[in-house]
Amino acid sequence: MPASALLKASGLAAALFIAFAAALMGPSSPPTDNYMATIRLGAGSIMCAGSLLLSKAIGETFLRNGGRGAFKALYCASLASTAAGGCEAASAFMAINRAVALTSTAALLSGAGLALIRLAKEVE
User: Fold this and answer.
1) Is 82 exposed, middle or buried (0-12, 13-18, 19+ CB in 10 A)?
2) CA nearest neighbour of 77 among 116, 107, 118, 43
């Protein structure tokens, strides 16, 4: 099994936390223009699908034999970034604070990136 159940659960918990925070923290208004609603729905769906595929690829390659902590952090961050895509897609229909979702996802991904940089320096 490429990624453990605990790792998947922690990524999904982070995704749920991001989604609930975006829904509860001062939501912005949904778009009144159908064009903007379509763009938000499409962009959010693509981001959500891309994040799921990225986490699947990381799980099947870097985490195949257990993996290091940096790749586990990257797996969790990519799994949690599906929440930002879901919030973007949902903002086409309801009021959601997309900035909170995107900022939280960026913080998770930058933390995982710093862990990968530290790992690269250790390997050298």
Assistant:
1) buried
2) 107
**What does the buried/exposed string (b/e) look like for 27-49 if buried means 16 or more CB atoms within 10 Å of the residue's CB?**
eeeebeeeeeeeebbeebeebbe
Distance of CA 44 to the CA centre of its chain: 11
User: What mean pLDDT comes out for the span 38-48?
Assistant: 94
- Cα 66 → chain centroid: 21
Mean pLDDT of 103-115: 89
pLDDT at residue number 83: 92
pTM as predicted: 0.82
Helix, strand, or coil here: 44? helix
Residue 90: both structure tokens together: 């949902």
Q: Are 44 and 88 in contact (CB under 8 A)?
A: yes
Band (pLDDT 50/70/90 cuts) for residue 1 is: low
| Distance in angstroms (rounded) separating the CA atoms of residues 28 and 31 | 9
Query: Reduced to 3 states, what is the DSSP secondary structure of residue 46?
Result: helix
The CA distance from 8 to 80, in Å, is 10
